[in-house]
Write a structure and sequence with these properties.
Order of helices and strands: EEEHEHEHEHHEHEHEH
Shape: elongated
Number of helices: 8
Structural class: alpha/beta
Distance between the termini: 39 Å
Radius of gyration: 21 Å
CATH superfamily of the largest domain: NAD(P)-binding Rossmann-like Domain
Strand order of the largest sheet: 1-3-2
Strand content: 15-25%
CATH topology of the largest domain: Rossmann fold
């Protein structure tokens, strides 16, 4: 925000529930307190927007922050997680509205990765909602399990095509020529026929 004036954003304060960070400064911007001080701090600093940058917290925390901001008439937005930025899937400029996925976050679930990988390996996998944020991440993770085939299904043709292209690039890099990615615009066609329409 400080380096890119075209974003139209100027940071005026940090909010952090950790009391040890109170009054510390980051690039000249102070940590003014926990989430409970948001209304008071926003009024004092004439802040109109709160950008939530907490990719690892639970949905309850996000809901609490959004609720506090809403009562104080402060607009809320989120930024992508650091892993998404480092992986090149999104840019740091990708500040957007709070999504339903942010509000529904749950405590991290420990997945038996090896067991899941063995179950999926060499199987045909259909992923519905493949173009969405959750579906596309499922596609990436399932691809690592080496299925024989992944069928991508979704309402948005562009979003499904984009994740299909991303997975194809990964396959080319890994030289996994045995995997075939396909896309069908209609779920009924997948179950009613063995024919699956390939993406252009």
């Amino acid at each position: 925000m400080q380096r890119n004036s075209h974003l139209g954003l100027r940071p005026v304060a940090f909010i952090d529930d950790d009391p040890q960070k109170l009054n510390t400064r980051i690039r000249g911007v102070s940590v003014v307190g926990a989430r409970s001080v948001i209304p008071k701090a926003a009024k004092r600093l004439y802040a109109r927007k709160a950008i939530i940058a907490m990719p690892s917290v639970t949905g309850q925390v996000i809901r609490d922050v959004v609720d506090i901001c809403k009562k104080a008439n402060i607009q809320t937005s989120t930024v992508p997680g650091l892993d998404e930025i480092l992986n090149g899937r999104v840019r740091i400029e990708s500040i957007g509205d709070v999504r339903i996925e942010d509000l529904l976050r749950r405590e991290p679930v420990q997945t038996e990765t090896e067991r899941v990988a063995k179950f999926i390996r060499d199987k045909k996998v259909i992923i519905t909602g493949a173009g969405g944020s959750i579906g596309s991440e499922l596609c990436r993770q399932i691809l690592k399990c080496r299925p024989s085939e992944i069928i991508l299904v979704g309402h948005g043709e562009n979003s499904v095509f984009n994740i299909q292209q991303e997975l194809e690039q990964v396959i080319q890099v890994l030289k996994e020529e045995s995997k075939t990615l396909r896309y069908s615009p209609r779920l009924s066609q997948i179950f009613a026929s063995e024919t699956v329409y390939s993406t252009p």
